[in-house]
Amino acid sequence: RGSSCIRIECIFFSEFHPTLGPKITYQVPEEYISRELFDTVQVYIITKPELQNKLITVTAMGKKLIGCPVCIEHKKYSRNALLFNLGLVCDARTKTCALEPIVKKLSGYLTTLELESGFISNEESKQKLLPIMSTLLEELNATGACTLPIDESNTINLKLIEQRRDPLIVQEYDVPVFTQCKDHFIKSQWDLTTQQILAYIDGFRHIQKISAEADVELNLVRIAVQNLLYYGVVTLVSIFQYSNVYCTTPTVQSLIDDRSIQEECLNYVTKKGQKRACLRDVFQLYCGLTPGTTVRDLCSRYSQQLQRVDERRLIQYGLMKALIRRLQKYPVKVTRDERSRPPRLYTGCHSYDEICCKTGMSYKELDERLENDPNIIVCWK
Amino acid sequence: MYIHSSSFDLQGERKSMYKQSENSFFKRGEKTSPISVILVTSGSRGNKLLFRYPFQRVADCTSSLTTKQRSPYALNTTGDVLEDPDGDSREQTPLTDQQLVAGFSDIILATILATKSDMCGKKFELKIDNVRFVGHPTLLQHPHTIQVSKTDPSPKREMPTMILFSVVFALRANADPSVISCMHNLSRRIAIALQHEERRCQYLTREAKLMLAVQDEVTNMTETDGSPQSPFRQILPKCKLARDLKEAYDSLCTTGVVRLHINNWLEVSFCLPHKIHRVGGNHVPPEALERSLKAIRPYHALLLLDSEKALLAQLPLDCSPALVRLIKTCSAVKNLQQLAQDADLNLLQIFQIAAHLVYWGKAIIVYPLCENNVYMLSPHANISLYSPLAEAFGQQFPGHDLPSMLAKFSLPLSLSEFRNPLDASVQEAQLIQMVVWMLQRRLLIQLHTYVCLLVPPSEEEPGLLRDEELPLVARVGGRSLSTPSALSFGSPTSSDDMTLTSPSMDNSSAELLPGGDSPLNRRMTETLLASLTEHERQVILNIPAAQSPEDLRMFARLLHYFRGHHHLEEIMYNENMRRSQLKTLFDKFRSVLVVTNHEDPVISLFQSPLE
After folding, report:
1. Which of A152, B80, B338, B492 has the most neighbouring CB atoms within 10 Å?
2. DSSP string, B106-141
3. How far apart are CA A24 and CA A38, in angstroms?
4. Cβ separation of B76 and A112 shorter than 8 Å?
5. A34 and A10 Cβ atoms separated by less than 8 Å
């Protein structure tokens, strides 16, 4: 994948000159940073000691400059210290988070080079910086990655990594389902745990079950799935049972509005080996899901529409695309004796899915237990 | 049905909720709260940090001065970078927000936050590792004018001159861009007020002098006593500006509503929508809020979130009389159009004031309460036994508990069904109050009926989606039935595009035409049905009900609503029809219509967070 829309406008190398003070020694392309701009921001580029080794991003005059000031102290340098900063410049509107690790790495590389062979303090070797910076600019903008040998023992390896949102916490009663066809998955790219559990991800097994059947510790499964979630490889749905209740969301209309969703849906939910189901039947089925109606009820009421439709995949697709949502049951213990302990699970915070998973009870068992308790009411949401 | 808003103290509830979790807020690193507020200036005395809040603890003061030593807050030194070839800089222990900013000494903050004068008048944004600073540096005077006039014989002024100042907020680096933008906005507003007061009576210079004097005093004391103290703690009781900044910070961290009186004279008010509009643990992005507000219809209603009295008490003395009239006249059973008539304002004004109240978290948009409204428990409702809401409900309605009431709405329940409870001991009026209470706290969502035209496919090639089978929505041009798009916050628009009467005059056809099977009516019906495919037309015409010209005409007239985007109540309003008429029509043509119930996406924003 390319470096999703980050364009580096300029790479600059700035240092503290013993007589001239802070200046830009090299920049590619030339003359990009004006005298005016540098004057305004130099305090953030060649900095006081307190700010050294920090990633600093400053926005000024329509540009964003990202750098990491370095200071190497040694008697051999005039003024006993070498101060420099290799930074990047982008347009002020760019989201530059993904560039930060690169700037940090570059500062590390240059520091190493200086400490090992005086790469920067030596006027001759310093000149090699210019072609290095040129190559960096070109390759990072083109492919988002760059590999550059500097000398016999040092190579720069850089890659722009897309920043993604933090994934949700994966619970033991969540069910992972592949967002794309499983066959597109290259097993060997992933870690061992993920490889081990892959076969068990079928869109119906929940985390606890995957852990038990794949014989992998529960937390490892959670973390592996969370990782897959982060990369958008899977999404989470809830456990499927014929006693489940669902209802439509406003998004269900997208099945009517959006041709691509229609195609995808009809292909996904049609029973294998059957002619493709028609839109009307599928839409009627989704609209047949209402509070108080179980999947079992739906099957008996809409048996004609279900001739060519797999109800499990229908529900699965509906959840993945948020056309429908699950109504979960939450028991709440509203009255109790003064002497009895306060409820731990029947507080309205834990769904049947969660309680059954944690206690090992089946839905039916939990139902029977709670139905006979006059102090407990059940909320659906 | 008359609804009396009772005196619920929503603000009080919110404040008490926050007091409990205030400590955890600071530790958890709330992404919508600032970490610190800092006031810096630049002038003839150089760059100075005048005030910062929260204060550094004394221990931090000393450690930040010695930067050569390994400070606990220092991140990677050059040595560490060598060890980790990937360049991943990971802190040893995650720092709390306070530590992140406390690690910056006063001096370094003064250097980096008091910018050069050419950065003034614009947004200032600086990110250092995990902290983001945002402000609006403001010039007090042109740098050239601080020269004493050559003709002025008086001795050089002793008072140092201030060239620029900046009120800076420190945030977590990963704060949402809209939060950063809002903080900048507040910084700018405070700056405008301070600039004004400085020009009028040198307010800022005076406060700055006080602050610096206290700082000098404390430094001297430290040198003689040897016991370090925070000068900022001493500044607070002496400087109103310091107290104002502290209050701004505290408000931003809790309620999100800031009201300051700079120099006891200029009011600066500001709200952080991210704190006010929180549903299900997430904030509602301001852009989404604005989009929703623009889609409000005249048949919606405004539900106040505070009692009338409490709301009126919060308004400034010089507020608009229209606002006061609206608050006094509005009610959950009245739609905006009726409100306009009752409050003697035009509809556009009503929309603008309503949007304003909603933006400030003082009201929400609902469908007006009536018998047939169907409500259900919101998926984001907090139904916990121990929630502050449960407690508040118990206090408001003694003898009843919230979970039991909420359980009743597990299945969709209409207001009329709810009002006939099994135990007649509960007063009818109180039941309505309970529903209003629950709506105000986003515990309930309202379900509406949506209809979609879907004709059974023809026999020849079932299952194939031919181009002709594209659903109606793709073929019928969108007729916009929305409120004026010119609605935006504070900008005046012409009221030409709004009428007080029902829009059915414009959008419904055949209203004024005589009934019966006149050739004109038949032609009209044909035209309306022309957008259908041949197959669809055939199927519809074969329905027994289609034999009645009246029914067919009504069906054809309403055809453009049958794409699942207009609910029953909207059709009723636009077409001036009764619910029973519509329901009967749907029933007659049920073989080609699919009906479903769900919340109205336009106002469901106020009940559910966005993905």
Report:
1. B338
2. HHHHHHHHS--GGGTTS-EEEEETTEEEEE--EESS
3. 8
4. no
5. no
pLDDT band (50, 70, 90) for residue B6: very low
Alpha-carbon distance of A124 to A107, in angstroms, equals 20
Q: Which two tokens stand for residue A378?
A: 């059940």
Do B354 and B363 touch, CB atoms closer than 8 A?
yes
B349: phi > 0 → left, psi -120 to 50 → alpha, else beta; which?
A: alpha
Of the CA atoms within 13 Å of residue A110, those in its CB half-sphere come to 30
Q: Cα–Cα distances in Å, from B352 out to A112, A131, B483?
A: 61, 59, 12
Identify the three-state secondary structure at position A347: strand
Tokens of B274: 């991210």
Spatial distance between the Cα atoms of A337 and A342, rounded to a whole number of angstroms: 9
- Residue A264 — left, alpha, or beta (φ > 0 → left; ψ -120 to 50 → alpha)? alpha
Q: Is some CB atom of chain A closer than 8 A to the CB atom of B455?
A: yes
In B280-362 the beta strands, taken as DSSP E runs, fall at: 282-283, 301-304
Please say whether the beta carbons of B13 and B392 come within 8 A.
yes
List of long-range contacts for B513-516, beta carbons under 8 Å, 24+ apart: B515/B550, B516/B549
pLDDT, tens digit, 9 for 90 and up, residues B41-60: 998 888 999 999 998 654 44
Q: Name the nearest CA neighbour of B600 among B443, B278, B331, B375.
A: B375
Which residue type is seen at B304? L
In this predicted model, what pLDDT tens digit does every residue of B119-157 receive, in sequence order? Answer: 999 999 999 998 999 999 999 875 555 444 455 555 554
Helix, strand or coil for residue A330?
strand
Say whether A56 and B407 touch across the interface (CB within 8 A): no
Instruction: Indicate yes or no: CB of A378 within 8 angstroms of CB of B407.
Output: yes
| Beta bridge mates, A28 | A11
- Tell me, what DSSP letter sits at residue B166? E
The pTM is what? 0.75
Contact yes or no for B180/B188 (Cβ under 8 A): no
Looking at beta carbons, which residues of chain B come within 8 Å of A161? Answer: none
| Of residues B461, B451, B450, the one with CA closest to residue B535 | B461
The predicted-structure confidence for A287-306, as pLDDT tens digits, reads as follows: 999 999 999 999 999 999 99
Residues 6+ apart with CB under 8 A from B12: none
Task: Tally the residues of chain B.
Answer: 611
Give the C-alpha separation, B219 to A40, whole Å: 31
- Amino acid residing at B555: F
